[in-house]
Design goal:
Blueprint: H1 28-32, E1 43-48, E2 56-63, E3 76-82, E4 93-97, E5 103-108, E6 124-131, E7 135-140, E8 155-159, E9 165-169, E10 176-184, E11 187-194, E12 207-218, E13 226-242, E14 246-248, E15 250-255, E16 261-265, E17 270-274, E18 288-292, E19 299-304, E20 310-314, E21 319-323, E22 329-334, E23 348-353, E24 360-364, E25 369-373
């Protein structure tokens, strides 16, 4: 990934082995916890994420759970943020990759033929979900020239299981940067981190306007998802534009088995927990602080491990970090396997946990590849 896209010039100093921290503040219980990351020791490069149109900078990643239409269970969807000129906020493609590394094009999204509003056009982000029925929802944070200064609010774009765009969603959306969803019956709650509220106008200054939007969608087998309600459930996160990283703000979201929504705040290297995310009627701030600093270095993508721990990938040094819900950072690992090593900075965005101790998929956008920690 070119230097202009790197979040920081921080290099990873370690060689990439799992590190049990034994922090002085760790409790006896956390010391006894076996880190999820301790099961994995190999970095496997599967395939380039670049489709035939040359889109770069893979951001979003999602493991398909059920075969529907052109979506096949076990495959990985990847969304691209940059176009073939490496301009940020101008990527228009989603690719589908098999576990053995075969890549195919799932969708190319044309801004001029969208069926609804999407202020600014198309630039696909880390927000990427597949809902029951094969409905694919992807975030768009567009730019006309690759800079955040020309960005607009964007939207969520909804495609069917054949990669055809069927609707756009703008309810409460302003810079959809990442997402996570949970379905109960015919209802899906989609949580979206938003990073553009007043951000571009601040011209590089920090504004505390980042927020998480909960969209409650009604699903049916025969009709596209319908927005029932849209509510801001967490807010006040710091964010700013960045010449190298486009925007720094809240990124990764994950729903823990404890019922909390975990939020990775990139700019301040913090993780927050929002309680009662499915039922809270509104926002009373950004939630409670889980952990900050130490091994966290501009965390981007976030996923919940099978043991309930929080996995985040650092934008500043190319490492994955495991944190308990209690806030103890218990393991880390370099995800950089390409010489000269460590390269690290700015290379990692989306990540997804394979079931049954299958490892962790992640995108390395320094070299535009899908990789597996296994």
């Amino acid at each position: 990934m070119p230097a202009r896209h790197r979040l920081a010039a921080v290099a990873a100093a370690a060689a990439g082995v799992i590190t049990a921290l034994g922090l002085a503040a760790a409790t006896a219980a956390s010391a006894a916890t076996v880190p999820y990351l301790s099961h994995f020791h190999t970095l496997t490069t599967l395939v380039s994420t670049v489709p035939t149109n040359g889109d770069e900078n893979p951001y979003g990643i999602f493991i398909v759970q059920q075969t529907t239409g052109d979506l096949h269970a076990g495959n990985v969807l990847i969304s691209n943020f940059n176009n073939n000129l490496n301009q940020q906020g101008r990527g228009t493609t989603i690719v589908q990759i098999t576990p053995t590394g075969h890549r195919s094009l799932f969708a190319t999204i044309n801004a001029s033929t969208l069926p609804g509003p999407c202020p600014g056009g198309v630039g696909l982000t880390t927000a990427l979900e597949v809902l029951p029925g094969g409905w694919v929802v992807v975030g768009s944070v567009p730019s006309t020239d690759g800079s955040a200064g020309t960005s607009q609010a964007g939207c969520l774009i909804v495609l069917n299981s054949h990669g055809q765009v069927k609707e756009t969603i703008t309810d409460g959306i302003n810079g959809p940067w990442d997402s996570v969803a949970v379905t109960q019956g015919s209802t899906t709650d989609l949580f979206v981190s938003n990073v553009l509220q007043g951000t571009a106008a601040a011209n590089g200054s920090v504004v505390d306007n980042g927020y998480v939007q909960r969209l409650t969608l009604h699903l049916s087998a025969s009709a596209r998802p319908q927005v029932m309600t849209s509510k801001t459930i967490a807010s006040g996160y710091p964010q700013r534009t960045d010449a190298n990283a486009f925007v720094l703000g809240i990124t990764g979201l994950g729903l823990g088995p404890d019922g909390k929504l975990y939020v990775a705040e990139t700019l301040t290297s913090q993780i927050f927990a929002v309680s009662d995310p499915l039922t809270r009627p509104g926002s009373n701030g950004g939630g409670s602080l889980v952990t900050h600093g130490s091994l966290l270095a501009q965390p981007l993508g976030l996923a919940i491990a099978p043991n309930g721990d929080i996995l985040t990938v650092n934008g500043a040094n190319g490492r994955i970090v495991e944190t308990t819900p209690g806030g103890n950072q218990i393991a880390q690992r370099s995800l950089d396997s390409t010489p000269p090593s460590p390269r690290g900075a700015g290379a990692l965005f989306g990540l997804a946990v394979r079931p049954d101790l299958g490892g962790v998929y992640y995108v390395d956008d320094a070299v535009n590849t899908l990789r597996l920690l296994n």
